[in-house]
Amino acid sequence: MSKTALIVDDSPTMRQMVAFTLTNAGFTVVEAEHGKDAVNKVTAAGKMDIVVTDLNMPEMDGITLIKELRKLSAFKYTPILMLTTESAIEKKQAGKEAGATGWLVKPFNPETLLKTIAKVLPA
Amino acid sequence: MSDEFAQFQEAFFEEAAEHLAIVEEGLLALEQHPQDLELLAKIFRSAHSIKGASGMFGFNAVTQFTHKMETLLDLLRTGEKAVSPPIADLLLKSTDCLKTLIEAVKSGVAVDDEVVQRLTTELATASGAQPPAVPQKQSVAAPTQSDSQERSYLIKWTPPEWLFQRGLDPLQVLKELNGLGDLSSVTLDMTRVPDLAEIDPEKCYLSWELQLLTGKDQKTIESAFEFVREDSKLVIEAQPVASSECQVASQNPQHEIRNQQPETVEGGLKPLGAILVESGVVSPAVLEQALSQQKRVGEILVEQKAVTPHQLEQALNTQRQQEAASHTKKTDTTSIRVDTAKIDKLINLVGELVITQSMLSDLGSRFEIKQLPVLLERVAQLERNTREIQERVMGIRMLPIGTAFSRFPRLVRDLSTKAGKKIQLVLSGEETELDKTVIESIGDPLTHLVRNSADHGLEPPEERLDNNKSEVGTIRLNAFHEGGNICITVEDDGRGLNRDKIVAKAVKQGLIGENEKLSDDQIWPLIFRPGFSTAEKVTDVSGRGVGMDVVKRNIEALGGTVSIKTVTGKGTTFTLKLPLTLAIIEGMTVRVGKETYIVPLLSILESIQPKAGTIKTVVGKGELINVRGTYLPMIRMYEVFVLEPEYTNPMKSILLILETEGERVAVMVDEILGQQQVVIKSMEQNFRKVEGIAGATILGDGTVGFILDVRGLLEIARHNTPVAA
Q: How far is CA B428 from CA A92, B318, B489, in A?
């Protein structure tokens, strides 16, 4: 069975690019526009193998989403990658405290994305 | 930039345009509510999204500029800085600049670096930063040395206790290390593991001592610990290498071929005026004035009698056509973003259509006459499917008109500051949907009408107060559906049109006779005549005498109409009535001989059966018909298209009175068949352009029907030349 990934980003372009890369790498992708949307979608979809989330989003930001996900038993140990921009690197700390597994600094290319995912994805 | 991501550029441009609109709208709203933190957060997010995504495509100029905007917005968002009019103004200007930057990467043209630099500095100053340092190079994954000598490293790693709670797995790190080289020894240190009773299974009590033989450098090894390094106890020691000779080779010469591009040199030369202004020889104002005295080439040539005004007009026409052609080419490549729900629904419907089709072919293969009711039922079902699919497919092209309205808050703001008037803009009906092409094409006419209202319609504050009106003038833009059309109204509560001025001007231009008694409804449309402007002074905003006629022409090109309602002292309302789509028109089917033609419904005023004696022939003007006192040119369709008609006697046939661009013509046909919606198929694409025919369509019985081009017919009436079929 293919692995599942949840992609959370309010920018459709970013979402499309990440989804495209992951789909090509054999993932089944679920997309969400923001934290709230993501929480709703995982309630419906259940477990995910990995979560890739943007931080700055309307409705519910990435940090809050990570905290919310960690509260769910299905997401307690799920790797969660956050996408940050260089200027928001200080958010890394907040993200780690919230329970983010790792991070990826924008801009990135498909190879870096897949490499980083490989880093945190349990075999 | 990654080639794989390049295909998403179009999506980025579309998204960026949306974000820009949000930023602009937000900034305008911010002027009213400077304390609105939610609004600020929204603006910030949009800027942030543009920054993030533009970086992905390597649009560094955009990324860097947005970053500067974002920095300032962040200060506003966190309340460290208050929103002031100069800051709002600066941000608005920056938004414009950002728009230009994005436009520039899209089309590949160079941008005015000076403006970008100036705004960048201003933004930095406003953010309280030092003048911008040299833009930093985007750091994309540090180059890894791959061919250096293998070395042995001793790694001691104690991960943080909460490792598991972040979804991290020490095994992952070990695996990655193993991938870098040969993990020759792994020693697990379990001394910190407490007694079983005290163990918290969610905590990590382990630490490792590793021996790694690898050709990679220390940095690469560290990157395996990327997400835990700061919280771990980590020691990486390079072991002395056995052989000493390779020490020399450690300085790896880097043949980094840098793509040194010269700092964007603009392709063309600078115009003389620009150089003179830059060197301070003349002021921009002087240059402007000098340029305004410059005559156009055409005017000079006419003066020198090198060309006749008629030849010039023809040349200008050609130019316009080429311009229009290049414009259509440009719009051809645009994409449209469709809600997936719309597509899902459509796929569903196509599925139903396929089922209906297979039911029909099943029935057809063993059809007996007693099954006729079943057949009729299936056909009715097919009809339902088709109709619904048609509606949904049209729906794909439908966008809310709000996208066309969104430019107006900014426009009105700028106009009100420029004209020194207080103007309030009220938008409604933004959610009304219509065809994307129509939305794109009504932007300019609407802009013109709004400018017109702001400049001519609304009075200055003092005058309004004198007339017992509120100091603030209002312009209302409203959109709504009416029948199969969409109506857009531009309404102002200004002084209204001045009947006397219009009449005086029209008499002067010879459009009407001096003592002609005309109703208001006949007077107002005069302002749509070319070259008609009653504005006393030419302003920067409008009133150059061009415009209203262009508005009308553009709207009519879309198959729409413009009408005016005005009350002196109370205000003016312009109503644009447009078809929902350009692909389908509402038409009247008429018959001439054995042929069926479709006349666009919007152009039909009435149909009459002429009485004897109302038709006169005037030398050089062809036949004229007297319709309630007005003589209109009459066209016999069968003559134009060289057909065998049923009636050659006008008393027996029917005359359709058609109108386009204020001109009327009577067209003689044999019979009116009915009214129906027809899908336009282009003649140019499938055959060639035929004078008097706007397009073709396939009629219910499968035959081809031609759609009349009313404007073309008028031309034919003027020249009296039949079309060779």
A: 44, 40, 10
CA distance B435 to B334: 14
CB-CB under 8 Å, B227 with A119: yes
Cβ distance B49 to A120 less than 8 Å, yes or no, reads: no
The nearest alpha carbon in chain B to A111 belongs to: B2
Q: Do B166 and A112 touch (CB under 8 A)?
A: no
What are the DSSP E strand ranges found in B101-250? 151-158, 181-189, 207-214, 233-238
The span from the CA of B540 to the CA of B543, in Å, is 8
In angstroms, the separation between the Cα of residue A51 and the nearest Cα of chain B is 11
**A47 to chain B, minimum CA–CA distance in Å?**
14
Mention every residue, 6+ apart, whose C-beta is less than 8 A from residue B266. Answer: B110
| pLDDT tens column, B124-149 | 877 776 444 444 444 444 444 444 57
Q: Å from A100 to nearest chain B CA?
A: 6
**Residue contact B2–A109, C-beta within 8 A:** yes
pTM given for the model? 0.53
Parallel, antiparallel, or unpaired for β A102-106 and A80-85? parallel
Q: For an interface test with B, which of A6, A7, A8, A11 has the most B Cβ atoms less than 10 Å from its Cβ? A: A11
Q: Distance between CA atoms of B171 and B189, rounded to whole angstroms?
A: 14
3-state secondary structure B472-508: CEEEEEEEEEECCEEEEEEEECCCCCCHHHHHHHHHH
Q: Give residue-wise pLDDT tens across range B206-240.
A: 888 888 888 887 888 888 887 887 778 888 888 76
Residue B488: beta bridge partners?
B479, B576
Which is more confident, B259 or B355?
B355
Residue B322: half-sphere exposure toward Cβ, Cα within 13 Å: 6
ipTM of model over 0.90:
no
Where are any strands of DSSP class E within B123-251? 151-158, 181-189, 207-214, 233-238
CB contact under 8 A, B138 and A13: no
Helices (H) and strands (E) counted in chain B, each on its own, are: 24, 22
Is the Cβ pair B140, A107 closer than 8 Å?
Answer: yes
Structure token digits, residue B235 = 């020691």
- The 3-state secondary structure of B270-293 reads CCHHHHHHHCCCCCHHHHHHHHHH
* Nearest chain B residue (CA) to A113: B141
Check CB contact under 8 Å for A77 and B167.
yes
Task: Name the helix (H) or strand (E) containing B427.
Answer: strand B423-428
Residues B297, B316: contact at Cβ < 8 Å?
A: no
The nearest CA of chain A is from the CA of B477 a distance in Å of: 29
* pLDDT tier at A6, thresholds 50, 70, 90: very high
Q: Percentage helix, strand, coil, to 5, in chain B? A: 45, 20, 35
Residues on chain A bordering chain B, Cβ-to-Cβ distance under 8 angstroms: 10-14, 16-17, 20-21, 54, 56-58, 70, 76-80, 83, 85, 87, 96, 99-103, 106-110, 112, 119-123
Q: Measured at the alpha carbon of residue A59, what is the angle toward residues A62 and A45, in degrees to the nearest 5?
A: 70
Beta bridge partners of B591: B596, B671
Inter-chain contact B167–A99, Cβ cutoff 8 Å? yes
Model confidence at B487: pLDDT above 80: yes
* pLDDT of B535: 56
Determine which helix (DSSP H) or strand (DSSP E) holds B116, and give its type and residue range.
helix B113-126
Q: What is the largest CA-CA distance in chain A?
A: 38
Cα distance from A122 to chain B (closest Cα, Å)?
Answer: 7
Q: What angle do helix axes A35-45 and A62-71 make, rounded to 10 degrees?
A: 30
- Bond into A107 cis (ω within 30): yes
Domains of chain A, earliest start first: 4-120 (3.40.50.2300)
Chain A CB contacts of B53 below 8 Å: 11, 13-14
